Amino acid sequence: xxxxxxxxxxxxxxxxxxxxxxxxxxxxxxxxxxxxxxxxxxxxxxxxxxxxxxxxxxxxxxxxxxxxxxxxxxxxxxxxxxxxxxxxxxxxxxxxxxxxxxxxxxxxxxxxxxxxxxxxxxxxxxxxxxxxxxxxxxxxxxxxxxxxxxxxxxxxxxxxxxxxxxxxxxxxxxxxxxxxxxxxxxxxxxxxxxxxxxxxxxxxxxxxxxxxxxxxxxxxxxxxxxxxxxxxxxxxxxxxxxxxxxxxxxxxxxxxxxxxxxxxxxxxxxxxxxxxxxxxxxxxxxxxxxxxxxxxxxxxxxxxxxxxxxxxxxxxxxxxxxxxxxxxxxxxxxxxxxxxxxxxxxxxxxxxxxxxxxxxxxxxxxxxxxxxxxxxxxxxxxxxxxxxxxxxxxxxxxxxxxxxxxxxxxxxxxxxxxxxxxxxxxxxxxxxxxxxxxxxxxxxxxx
Length: 447
Hints:
Mean pLDDT: 89
Helix content: 40-55%
Order of helices and strands: HEEEEEEHHHHHHEEEEHEEEHHHHHHH
Number of strands: 13
Strand order of the largest sheet: 3-10-9
Distance between the termini: 73 Å
Radius of gyration: 25 Å
Shape: globular
Low-confidence stretches: none
Number of helices: 15
């Protein structure tokens, strides 16, 4: 099967090699241009997210017109086409789930279901009920890294408990609890969150071939999803056998560390040798550890209060509290801090829920410089932030600014999502509409 995978990868101008300290890695055997699909794969197994509000179709992850499986009462489908597509696997799963009592059904988390489906798929492929291919077989799962030697005892115990539950659910005499536990570790290291076009999570999937690809701080390709299919697209020229660059200490300290106590200094801090605090690497000023600890304590307490207010539906109070957190973080962190950016993202979200479009736009603009610094210029998250900014600008009548933001979004998202995707077609339509509006305004001014 390994030789078959090698031949299949060769057809796609890819190769798999082993590198010390990194394990198996996927390499290009030719140059790829921005926007080009490098590889795509359907999930070996997948499950939708389970929330208190919404269920999703088990096959396509949609949320409309759902009907529950009449037998197991666990799985939902949006129609007969999806149910038929999933039937070969769900037929076995359905029999298993139908036997569970209420307590066991309550323990059926997406992770447990994913593992149950994994072993059902393995069994059905072994019995040749479901076909295997070079990129769709259980041996690819066996070859994934688990990092079991690096897992602490508490996590190992959790994996063992989860494995025992899967064993109780399946009740197969020849199943190995050790193999199930190791597969949970493999899922932790290799499973992907399946997202929609705006990168909102829908579910989880295991893509054994795509999992071979190494991560990079400066990626030359990105993973997006077309339905459940994982698609890796080049977002900058990918040279044959190219690799990413290592982390930079200064950049990490700015994004994740503390700012200098002197507001006029823009230096980054590193822990001093006596562990009394953090020293500015630009001006040498020591920032006391206890001072930082005090501010962090205030941030934690205020965050808990803000989160409770938001969960209770008190959006205005939550917004005020998150703005207090923002002020505390400005004393603590660089303006490019990831924690500060996440707080501002939360305020942006709440402002949009409160329909305060002016405030939402102001916070969206505050986040963009951090997005530009954190993510490469071709990253989909940066493109989506430009898209949000463009929509808010258009809503507020800032048509010219909206065109600039939407144009930046198009430039990125055409490469990451594909020019013919419905999402990008909708974005292009909005851009053309904004341009037409700007042209109309200009022509009206001429009279």
